[in-house]
């Protein structure tokens, strides 16, 4: 099975509010659809929420009786009841449902009943055989009630004491569990209080292969099965995740030289973080100067073009590299010898051909490429990035990657995906659901697995799934020295679960754990959608709810305003601030007439101002209609634009791995006649809106180099041809490598075909290296000027203003005053003068970094001290600093 990147489907009315990280909605493959369908074949509309209570939508009447039946003819009697306030708070989506109370005389039978098939029936009173309604039973609530208190304290997976390993797995509904250890069967013992099965072995078990053999009732197939399953708490695996290994991560053999004494770059607070988002294979697979293309070890190749570029970014102010999923995922053959390659001479095909994408698609299910949002084992490094996926090399080489990034001046962030699994039910790649069927996955009202993420969803609101999230994160932090975590679809997690992660990390200390957990940063996708939307099941970790927690969420507000339109536009030419809306129209009817364009552009400028404040809800300014407004009062598709309580609550970005790269989006939106030089300048303007904002900012690796994926908006499975980063400008930027894959892009081919052969859309070395240098200058300014690092909302309010905002604001130009700085964002194609009367007489000059920097155009910016007038060339962001005389 090769399921798509975890993304979402929403109603047309809601699509406009989607954020970039969650907005690429791939076509679900037939295999994925089938897997989702078979995940929960039997209907289970009753929910056993604790040892005393069952909730079911069927109402009791005087003529009926209800009971819970289990294997062997057993019966648990039920009586109508009312949910308590506490129960309604714990299960808000069930608050209005009829409830039934188990007869106290039957409650001691619960543990036995849970180890087999369960059915709730409503029958005619006095007639046991006259069944009126019947359904299966969802059991996560009662399992938590019976076992979670003790199970939460258990140490699961392989744990070593004095060289002897103890293996433990939580399987409370299993009838039996044994250990298949290197081909022999070892009995395991069940703790009745926790539901944990465990066995302690001898030192010679170290590094031996194992799986658990679990005999359990599987409702998806309606029978008792014996599953041979790897350990969800695995610390190491054999190739293709076939078996777990009894591996101690503290084993000195797994530590590369210098690991214990590794000195990281100084920790940067989240509010000041400047982050490069990077996929491990993309980084080096096309880098001819790398000795380890596509591998963890590429980050140790100090002389490679890729690592040299990351080092330049680090010296300019980039503080973190955010790695797309590097845990064990289920969609790539891990042995290189098993990986298919496209069987065409791709480079020989025309720039607008559909043959490249056809050839790539033929190999896609068997090649070495996938973004990796398909978790199989959450706490083991992915084997396809290792020199040898068989055994412990992946652990050692992941650690060497972390070392390599540290030596380049960068800290490491991991993209983690606990919101879904690659498979569920009895699928071969289902791990959690074959150990405790019906527990770890989130179930809908009918008992089917939720798939709003386009994959089988998990339920971190359940105690042991929440524990797995916390335990896994702590392992990555302690054992792999990971410095930050980005949560995929974080809004599918309870806020309480993410706060539990924060609390567990904060408890890690250098003396005890070798890491300072309080310095570890957390951020994620706080989108609000699916079965959990609107806090339907719990208080979610969404944008609004995470404000004030110190855990950031991606902000889509300024991003959409800068780029224009959205990923679902039928016409991709809908323009925004940086792409020429009103100031350089592209002729698309989708943009409307001049008056409409002007109004949209001015509103986009208000959204960008909110973004520059760090998306603060209470930041007050004059909008372009002349009204005094708070950030929360600026409209973003029906939602408040400002939602943050402090700098660091919102993460700014102009592009990420989902949807078209920034260059490709601008390629669609800028007029076809826009020169390569102006396209590069527009790119820097767009990047500047995030780079010069309060709070953290992220950009996709290669975006400063005008990275293109040949217009592919969802490249999760598009192979190296469309995804690889080209660090050497002589190799181009990836544009014009054929029409993007049909599955997600074919409706846009009529627009793409002419564009891919447009010489103006093909940048050369001058544009590529120039854009990167100009971006690095802005990055250096943002990370060295204290004004960009306000620590409180009050500090932002005192330091930040937009002196020309109001009814007279210039369309396409934003003038920002920030402490001793004035920043002019000129997105128009022509030179613009901005007069700030209040600054007349105050000396300003172009910031020294830009005055002595790489961009000759920005050096032509000027300032008239007598009038307070700043003059900035077209498609340029200029930073002026007070204290030096302007002419």
Automatic annotation (TrEMBL):
<protein>
    <submittedName>
        <fullName>Alpha-1,6-glucosidase</fullName>
    </submittedName>
</protein>
<dbReference type="Pfam" id="PF02922">
    <property type="entry name" value="CBM_48"/>
</dbReference>
<feature type="signal peptide">
    <location>
        <begin position="1"/>
        <end position="34"/>
    </location>
</feature>
<dbReference type="InterPro" id="IPR017853">
    <property type="entry name" value="GH"/>
</dbReference>
<dbReference type="GO" id="GO:0005975">
    <property type="term" value="P:carbohydrate metabolic process"/>
</dbReference>
<dbReference type="GO" id="GO:0051060">
    <property type="term" value="F:pullulanase activity"/>
</dbReference>
<comment type="similarity">
    <text>Belongs to the glycosyl hydrolase 13 family.</text>
</comment>
<dbReference type="InterPro" id="IPR011839">
    <property type="entry name" value="Pullul_strch"/>
</dbReference>
<dbReference type="InterPro" id="IPR014756">
    <property type="entry name" value="Ig_E-set"/>
</dbReference>
<dbReference type="InterPro" id="IPR040671">
    <property type="entry name" value="Pullulanase_N2"/>
</dbReference>
<dbReference type="InterPro" id="IPR013783">
    <property type="entry name" value="Ig-like_fold"/>
</dbReference>
<feature type="domain" description="Glycoside hydrolase family 13 N-terminal">
    <location>
        <begin position="156"/>
        <end position="234"/>
    </location>
</feature>
<dbReference type="Pfam" id="PF17967">
    <property type="entry name" value="Pullulanase_N2"/>
</dbReference>
<feature type="domain" description="Pullulanase N2">
    <location>
        <begin position="43"/>
        <end position="145"/>
    </location>
</feature>
<dbReference type="InterPro" id="IPR013780">
    <property type="entry name" value="Glyco_hydro_b"/>
</dbReference>
<feature type="domain" description="Alpha-1,6-glucosidases pullulanase-type C-terminal">
    <location>
        <begin position="731"/>
        <end position="880"/>
    </location>
</feature>
<keyword id="KW-0732">Signal</keyword>
<dbReference type="InterPro" id="IPR004193">
    <property type="entry name" value="Glyco_hydro_13_N"/>
</dbReference>
<dbReference type="InterPro" id="IPR024561">
    <property type="entry name" value="Pullul_strch_C"/>
</dbReference>
<dbReference type="Pfam" id="PF11852">
    <property type="entry name" value="Pullul_strch_C"/>
</dbReference>
């Amino acid at each position: 099975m090769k399921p798509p990147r975890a993304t979402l489907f929403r109603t047309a009315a809601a699509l406009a509010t989607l954020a970039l990280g969650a907005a690429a909605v791939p076509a679900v493959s037939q295999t994925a659809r089938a897997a989702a369908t078979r995940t929960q074949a039997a209907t289970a509309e009753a929910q056993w929420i604790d040892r005393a209570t069952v909730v079911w939508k069927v109402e009791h009447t005087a003529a009926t009786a209800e009971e819970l039946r289990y294997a062997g003819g057993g019966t648990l009697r039920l009586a109508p009841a009312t949910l308590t306030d506490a129960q309604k708070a714990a299960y808000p989506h069930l608050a209005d449902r009829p409830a039934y109370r188990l007869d106290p005389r039957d409650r001691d039978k619960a543990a036995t009943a849970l180890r087999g098939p369960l059915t709730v029936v409503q029958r005619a009173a006095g007639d046991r055989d006259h069944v009126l309604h019947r359904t299966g039973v969802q059991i996560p609530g009662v399992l938590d009630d019976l076992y979670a208190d003790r199970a939460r304290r258990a140490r699961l997976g392989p744990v070593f004491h004095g060289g002897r390993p103890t293996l433990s797995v939580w399987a409370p509904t299993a009838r039996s569990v044994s250990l298949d250890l290197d081909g022999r069967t070892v009995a395991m013992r069940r703790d009745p209080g926790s539901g944990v099965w465990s066995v302690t072995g001898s030192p010679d078990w170290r590094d031996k292969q194992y799986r658990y053999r679990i005999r359990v009732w599987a409702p998806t197939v309606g029978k008792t099965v014996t599953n041979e399953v790897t350990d969800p708490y695995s610390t190491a695996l054999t190739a293709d995740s076939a078996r777990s290994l009894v591996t101690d991560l503290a084993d000195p053999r797994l530590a590369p030289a210098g690991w214990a004494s590794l000195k990281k770059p100084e920790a940067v607070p989240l509010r000041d973080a400047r982050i490069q988002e990077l996929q491990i294979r993309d980084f080096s697979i096309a880098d001819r100067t790398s000795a380890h293309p596509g591998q963890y070890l590429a980050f140790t190749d100090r002389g490679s073009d890729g690592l040299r570029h990351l080092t330049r970014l680090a010296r300019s102010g980039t503080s973190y590299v955010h790695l797309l999923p590097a845990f064990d995922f289920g969609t790539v053959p891990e042995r290189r010898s098993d990986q298919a390659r496209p069987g065409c001479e791709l480079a020989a095909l025309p720039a607008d051909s559909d043959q490249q994408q056809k050839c790539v698609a033929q190999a896609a299910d068997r090649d070495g490429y996938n973004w990796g949002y398909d978790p199989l084992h959450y706490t083991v490094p992915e084997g396809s990035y290792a020199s040898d996926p068989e055994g412990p090399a992946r652990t050692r080489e992941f650690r060497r990657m972390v070392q390599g990034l540290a030596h380049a001046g960068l800290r490491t962030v991991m993209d983690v995906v606990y919101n879904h699994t690659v498979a569920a039910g009895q699928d071969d790649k289902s791990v959690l659901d074959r150990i405790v069927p019906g527990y770890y996955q989130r179930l809908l009202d009918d008992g089917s697995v939720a798939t709003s993420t386009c994959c089988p969803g998990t339920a971190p609101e359940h105690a042991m799934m929440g524990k797995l999230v916390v335990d896994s994160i702590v392992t990555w932090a302690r054992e792999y020295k990971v410095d930050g975590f980005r949560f995929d679809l974080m809004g599918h997690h309870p806020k309480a679960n993410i706060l539990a992660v924060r609390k567990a990390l904060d408890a890690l200390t250098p003396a005890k754990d070798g890491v300072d957990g309080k310095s570890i940063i957390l951020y994620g996708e706080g989108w609000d959608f699916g079965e959990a939307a609107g806090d339907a099941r719990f208080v979610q970790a969404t944008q609004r709810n995470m404000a004030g927690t110190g855990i950031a969420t991606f902000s889509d507000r300024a991003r959409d305003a800068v780029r224009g339109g959205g990923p679902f536009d039928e016409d991709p030419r809908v323009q925004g601030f940086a792409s020429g809306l009103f100031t350089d129209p592209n002729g698309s009817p989708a943009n409307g007439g001049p008056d409409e364009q002007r109004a949209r552009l001015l509103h986009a400028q208000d959204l960008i101002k909110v973004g520059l404040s760090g998306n603060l809800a209470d930041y007050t300014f004059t909008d372009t209609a002349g009204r005094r407004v708070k950030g929360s009062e600026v409209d973003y598709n029906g939602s408040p634009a400002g939602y943050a309580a402090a700098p660091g609550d919102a993460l700014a970005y102009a592009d990420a791995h989902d949807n078209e790269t920034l260059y490709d989006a601008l390629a669609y939106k800028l007029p076809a006649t826009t020169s390569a030089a102006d396209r590069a300048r527009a790119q820097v303007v767009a990047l500047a809106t995030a780079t010069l904002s309060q709070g953290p900012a992220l950009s996709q690796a290669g975006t400063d180099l005008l990275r293109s994926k040949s217009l592919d908006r969802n490249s999760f499975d598009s192979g190296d041809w469309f995804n690889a980063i080209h660090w050497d400008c002589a190799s181009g930027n990836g544009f014009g490598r054929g029409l993007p894959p049909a599955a997600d892009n074919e409706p846009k081919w009529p627009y793409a075909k002419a564009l891919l052969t447009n010489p103006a859309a093909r940048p050369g070395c001058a544009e590529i290296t120039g854009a990167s240098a100009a971006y690095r200058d802005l990055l250096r300014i943002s990370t060295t000027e204290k004004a960009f690092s306000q620590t409180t909302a009050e500090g932002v309010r005192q330091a930040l203003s937009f002196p020309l905002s109001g009814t007279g604001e210039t369309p396409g130009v934003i003038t920002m005053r920030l402490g001793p700085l004035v920043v002019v964002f000129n997105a128009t194609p022509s030179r613009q003068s901005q007069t700030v009367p209040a600054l007349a007489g105050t000396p300003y000059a172009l910031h020294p970094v830009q005055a002595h920097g790489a961009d000759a155009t920005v050096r032509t910016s000027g300032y008239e001290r007598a009038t307070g007038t700043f003059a900035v060339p077209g498609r340029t962001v200029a930073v002026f600093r007070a204290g030096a005389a302007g002419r």
